[in-house]
Amino acid sequence: MKNIAIIGGGISGLFSAYFLHKSGYKVSVYESSKIGVECSYGNAGLTVPSHFEALANPGVLKKGLKWMLNPNSPFFLKPRFDMDLIKWIIRFNSFCTKKNVENNKYFLRDISLYSTSLYKDLMNSTDFDFDYKNTGLLMLCKEEKTLKEEEHLIKEANELGLKGRILNQDDLKQLEPNASFDVLGAAYYEDDGRVQPYDLIIAIKNYLEKEGVVFKEDCTIKDINISNVKIDSIVDNNNNVYYADEFIFTAGVYTSNIAKKFNLNIPMQGGKGFSFKVDKNDALNFTTPMILAEEKVAITPYDSYVNFAGTMMICGEDKSIVQRRVNNIRNASNNYINGLDIKENQMDDLWAGLRPCSPDGIPYIGRSKELSNLIIATGHAMIGISLGPATGKIVTSLINEEKPDLDIEKMNLYRF
Ligand SMILES: Cc1cc2nc3c(=O)[nH]c(=O)nc-3n(C[C@H](O)[C@H](O)[C@H](O)COP(=O)(O)OP(=O)(O)OC[C@H]3O[C@@H](n4cnc5c(N)ncnc54)[C@H](O)[C@@H]3O)c2cc1C
Fold this sequence. Notes:
- By secondary structure, the chain is of the alpha/beta class.
- The chain has 2 domains: about 5-40 and about 200-265 and about 360-410, FAD/NAD(P)-binding domain, CATH 3.50.50; about 50-95 and about 130-195 and about 270-355, D-Amino Acid Oxidase, subunit A, domain 2 (D-Amino Acid Oxidase, Chain A, domain 2, 2-Layer Sandwich).
- The protein is about 30% helix and about 25% strand.
- It is built from 10 helices and 20 strands.
- It has helices at about 10-20, 60-70, 85-95, 100-125, 145-160, 170-175, 195-210, 255-260, 325-335, 390-400; strands at about 5, 25-30, 45, 75, 135-140, 165, 185-190, 195, 215, 220-225, 230-235, 240-245, 245-250, 270-280, 290, 295-300, 305-315, 350-355, 365, 375-380.
- Strands 4, 5, 6, 7, 14, 15, 16, 17 and 18 form a 9-stranded mixed sheet that branches. The protein has a 6-stranded mixed sheet with strand order 9-2-1-13-20-19, with helices on one face. Strands 10-11-12 form a 3-stranded antiparallel sheet, with no helix packed on it.
- Helix 1 runs parallel beside helix 7 (about 195-210), helix 1 crosses helix 10 and helix 4 (about 100-125) crosses helix 10.
- It is globular, with a radius of gyration of 21 Å.
- It binds flavin-adenine dinucleotide.
């Protein structure tokens, strides 16, 4: 039985560990912090076949300059002199085209639907309990122009075989009779859903631990030993050495720097976002997750609280919380949901996370050509939770030397 080392205990690492364990491998997970507390913690938890447009798209480029000049915008790039950042921006800009969106939309649809079907299968498994709901997703629009853009996207989604429609205010009332929104209308994407990402990760961890999977927390892998074009072992911050037959790096935004040790160029920037939770109250009495289309704020209702998440700051590895931007998320939410007036002392569990963003908006999943026992799985940007099960399954196929269930060429590690 092969020994597999997974470096990084976020959603990508945990689903890889799960499916590898189910395939009969002996798995160990190495995590520099605690399992699941980095980018996979406070995110919006949305599963999103509706996100078939890559992050790099003409809309972002068009609004880019306006957003850059506005300190309250949902997208922000912190200027700094850093060659990796400069190269990343040049590449990102070159992918903000219709052609990139067209090239990638079928792949993004397919991998999202594949992952959603795996989430649904897992709900029927007795291995661990978790809370996935096929709730659909609302894109709430205040402005006529945005609603028109959403109409166009819904049409495209329908052409891709995804279920969705435009809702007017009456339709919205019918869907959510106990809440009221100050909007013109909404797009409703029916294939989407939500999980509670951290609870899910801990449920997988607890199950795997009972099954004998080893988790090493507070263990930063800082070096690798190579012999005969293979990784022989990894070394942690206390100089402990760990051996395995195969090594999988699912270290999120940090994978880019680690990959330089293997002479592998997988450009990535951290896309910082923030979130907080508010206990349910009368104004928050709804069950469908929503994105405020103009403000790019994601609002995810759970049984007893609602998660508010947003902002994309391209800012390297800086995880500090910027209170002004957190307040923007709160103010935007108060603006769209009638009767909502979130006060600072009601905002619990304030959090910042770094989305691992590739320049073309597509993840990196594949086997190294130089080191035969190395696999990388990262770069999921805004859809890492959505694609968690698909990532784990694809990694497992690569280890099994089987053809994955879908074509993974778009995620090629050597495309830059
Ligand atoms: C505000 C916000 C909202 C979001 N909303 C959604 C959403 O609704 N739906 C969705 O699908 N996605 C969403 N995302 C994106 C999603 O959170 C990420 O894509 C996903 O969490 C990435 O998971 P990961 O496992 O690749 O990385 P991480 O969760 O960051 O895991 C990587 C792990 O590797 C560890 N690590 C790093 N270096 C080392 C090392 N040298 N040694 C050992 N361990 C190491 C880190 O400590 C970390 O725990 C959102 C993100 C943000 C910030």
